[in-house]
Amino acid sequence: MSSARSFARPRRPRTIFLLHQAAQSVRSRLEARLRPLGVTGIQYTILAMVAARPGLSSAELSRRFFVTPQTMNETVAGAGAARACHAMRLRRGTGAC
Predict the structure, then answer these.
(1) Which of 3, 19, 75, 76 has the fewest Cβ atoms within 10 Å of its own Cβ atom?
(2) CA separation (Å) from 71 to 61, 68, 75?
(3) What is the pLDDT of residues 23-46, one digit of tens each?
(4) Which tens digit of pLDDT belongs to each residue from 67-89?
(5) What's the confidence (pLDDT) of residue 58?
(6) For residues 67, 69, 74 and 75, what is the CA-based torsion angle, rounded to 10 degrees?
């Protein structure tokens, strides 16, 4: 007698795995494009959310990103510093801050 397993279809990747693979690909490309600007993917995402929802507090951002308010403050401060550095580089025409 053969087992039912021998007749089972081969397992295909689960949808969640495929979505994760696609997200990783997009994130890698985003990080590569942002690297010259000195901004990380998470900083870009936060800046985009703040631009779309003016007045969003740091506490609200931290809840949306599942991080502590302290971590959000550090991330936002880093994004602001990166943006300021990039603006200075553009004005000076140099690669250093």
Answers:
(1) 3
(2) 10, 5, 6
(3) 999 999 999 998 888 888 888 888
(4) 998 988 888 787 776 666 656 56
(5) 83
(6) 40
Q: Note the residue count of the chain.
A: 97
Composition of the chain by helix, strand, coil, percent to 5:
70, 0, 30
> Which pTM value belongs to this model?
0.59
CA-angle at 9, arms to 5 and 14, nearest 5°: 110
Cα–Cα distance measured from residue 32 to residue 44, given in angstroms and rounded to the nearest whole number: 12
| Burial class (CB within 10 angstroms; exposed 0-12, middle 13-18, buried 19+) of 79 | buried
Q: Which amino acid is at 11?
A: R
